Amino acid sequence: MKQVEQPVAIQPQPIAAFGLTADNQYDKCVALARNLWWSWHAEVINLFRDLDPIRWRQLDHNPIALLSEFTPERLSMRAGELVLHSRINQAYRRLKEYVSEIPPWGRTHAGVLGSKPVAYFSLEFGVHESIPIYSGGLGVLSGDHIKSASGLGVPLVAVGLFYDQGYFKQHLDINGWQHEEYLNTKVENLPMEPALGTDGKPITVRIDTRAGKLLAKVWLMHVGRVRLYLLDCDVPSNNPEDRELTSRLYGGDNRTRIRQELVAGVGGVRALKALGIFPGVYHLNEGHSSFAILEAIRTRMKDDGMDFDVALRNVAQRTVFTTHTPVPAGHDRFDRNLIEEHIGPLRDELGISTEQLMGLGRVEPQNEHETFCMTVLGLKLSRRANAVSNLHGHVTRRMWAHLWPWRVEEEIPIGHITNGVHIQSWLAWQMQQLYDRHFPADWMHRMGEPDVWQDIHGIDPGELWETHYALKNLLLAFVRRRISRQCRRRGESDEAVEAARNILDPNILTLGFGRRFATYKRALMLLTDEDRLAEMVGDPKRPMQIIFAGKAHPADEPGRQLIQRIANLRHDPRFAGRIAFVEDYDINVCRHLIQGVDVWLNNPRRPLEASGTSGQKAVLNGALNLSILDGWWAEAYDGSNGFAIGNGTSHVDDRVTDARDAADLYRVLIEEVIPLYYDRDIDGLPRQWVKRMMNSISSLAWRFSADRMVADYVNHAYLPASGGVSCDMNVK
Ligand SMILES: *Cc1c(COP(=O)(O)O)cnc(C)c1O
Fold first, then answer.
1. For position 140, which CATH number holds?
2. Same structural domain, 412 and 514
3. Is the per-residue pLDDT at 2 higher than 60?
4. What percentage of the chain exceeds 70 in pLDDT?
5. Ligand 1 atom closest to residue 586's alpha carbon, by position in its atom list
6. CA distance 612 to 521
7. How many Å lie between the centroid of ligand 1 and the Cα of residue 140?
8. 344 and 489, same structural domain?
């Protein structure tokens, strides 16, 4: 291990307040809409909403689309009517200040990265529901990562792809069967602009394959202080098929996939160079972008005259690799032909043979039967690799142990940094107001510190409960609106639509389950014993209701069947009005759910949930987690800050595990959750429940925040990789 040095606090350049010179109300609103900073500031969101609440909802909370329906005169008039002027001025001033300064944390802790920023690669970014370039957890994590990097002032640029049709929109038909619809997003309604190169001209990158060239243009999106660059193959010089290469996320076959990954990885590194950005660290968020390493090596060889081995060591030292899943399907694999077609020309320049190249993507380099795995490439060519929770660290070391056959498991060089969530993006505004009243004045700047959150115990339990109850009512209103709209769209009867307006009851214990319908997540676990569930749901004194949401991958037939079974429960009189399926799970639906439910349920088959982050979002808003001891919950649960299903073990036979876990789920509900929720004092307040909400918030909010996560990446990965300080990741 190298000597630990103190970081040198050199002064990094603040990003310019790029053209923030608006002097009228309309231009100020447009400027606000063009930096995604607005998406985590409730006062700006409220401002846009107030301009036209109905259109705001109809336009998927997209402020640029909303403003395009206003003329400057009409906006000015509307602002006058609603007395919005000072709010607009103040929001604009805050944005301007925000982008022109670097906060103290970044100056002190990440200053050395200054002119050589971290380049963060991800194939998904979930920044806001109006920007359809994410599908689920991985994307939302990337979005939260860059928002926190912005807030802390970590010099970081992000690289991804622009998908104009994004991931699909989900609709269920009258039989509960999932249908997928792809939208055509209007680029002019998104906060993007062409990225300009050092010559002041829009950039196009070119990648040669054995079968021809691929071109991509580059968009720039501002996410607070962070610049997010998105590559887009929809350029006229590409052939028609390639123009659609980046249209859809997870939309094509393996050939589409490798071409997308080629564009993101190799194209991404070329784009940064054209922009005049020279990263000091490469952070590859999942194996999808591992080709970036090969291009970075090529660049070093070409620009600095290094030979392959030296360049490889040099780049590997500066590369951080994060792996996100123990599920085999989550690791892309390509056969030799696909690799040679796409990486062949790059391989020529690297001066290595096909066999050598294939070896970099194989656990056993000589094994001709092994396909090329992007995760293996990432693990082999990075000096620092990490999993995303403590438990996932153990699982990952075991999973890839054969890459280091001479090492014992504890010494496999893969550490862990547990995922966290961007608090401002997930915390309900009403909850934030409550914290503002009771927490230290600067708490929003110190959210990653434990002390700040201890003040929750000083809040009047009644006040916390009232706030939660108000949020729960908002959730129920949202669900009713959505369900009645779903019924209307399917052409159901007026009675059905009307009935949907009256489902659910705010005084009933409410469980939420929102996640992908992948089999290992076991969405049907609550239905294992349907009669028993019916008794619990219909209990006259202590009933229960459940809100489900989630998409199945289009090619996942079993996943679609799970959705169908849940969706059709509404026809069963035992569950009618008490079980709801909300279509089209996305950031917006997730936000409503985690802000309003009493209990957030997670019952994956251990240990397949690498981390999970939705439960962390629930914590912030006072919902209690009821979860298998998997992913983040295995290190979060302390006996009094939520509920655990099972004892953290699994059987070799999945059926045995599933049956045991289901039995324990019912037991915990019946013995712990339901009694605690309905145990009310004379004022109708569930005191012990509220105590548990407080324990959950005080013990978990700071630890599972993205601020803590990004700070960990800086200290344990970015600084050592950049040569700033050496401090290896906690390998347990
Ligand atoms: C947070 C989030 C996720 C990830 O949650 P998990 O707990 O990993 O399932 C997935 N999808 C959306 C839309 C989210 O907001």
1. 3.40.50.2000
2. no
3. no
4. 96
5. 13
6. 11
7. 7
8. no
Q: Are strands 178-181 and 372-373 parallel, antiparallel or unpaired?
A: unpaired
pLDDT > 60? residue 17? no
Nearest to 439, CA basis, from 419, 454, 417, 460: 454
Q: What is the mean pLDDT of residues 368-382?
A: 97
Please state, in angstroms and rounded to a whole number, the distance separating the CA atoms of residues 297 and 308: 7
pLDDT tens digits, one per residue of 99-113: 999 999 999 999 889
Q: Are 513 and 504 in contact (CB under 8 A)?
A: no
Q: Which two tokens stand for residue 251?
A: 């939309």
Within this chain, do residues 305 and 286 fall inside the same structural domain, yes or no? yes
One domain, residues 534 and 649: yes
Does a structural domain hold residue 583?
yes
Residues 260 and 387 placed together within one structural domain of the fold: yes
Distance between CA 592 and CA 313 in Å, rounded? 47
Give the number of other CB atoms < 10 A from CB of residue 53: 10
Residue 373 lies in a domain: yes
One domain, residues 615 and 648: yes
Are 86 and 38 within one domain? yes
Domain boundary among 45, 69, 99: 99
Strand partners of residue 384: 320
> Which residues approach ligand 1 with their CB closer than 6 A?
136-137, 140, 515, 585-587, 590, 612-615, 617
Which candidate, 322, 137, 394, 376, places its Cα nearest to that of 710?
Answer: 322
Both 489 and 406 in a single domain?
A: no
Tokens of 289: 């972008």
Ligand 1 mean position to 600 CA, how many Å?
12
Strand partners, 564: none
| Measured distance CA(103)–CA(111) in Å, rounded | 11
Report pLDDT digits (tens) over 413-470. Answer: 999 999 999 999 999 999 999 999 999 999 998 898 899 999 999 999 999 999 999 9
Centroid of ligand 1 to alpha carbon of 586 (angstroms)? 8
Strand order in the sheet with 544-549: 579-582, 544-549, 509-514, 599-602, 624-628, 643-645
Determine the Cα–Cα distance for residues 217 and 233; give it in Å rounded to an integer.
6
Q: How many domains does the chain have?
A: 3
Measured in whole angstroms, the distance separating CA 639 from the mean position of its chain's CA atoms is 27
Atom of ligand 1 nearest to the CA of 617: 1
Domain extent, residue 360, equals 118-419+711-722
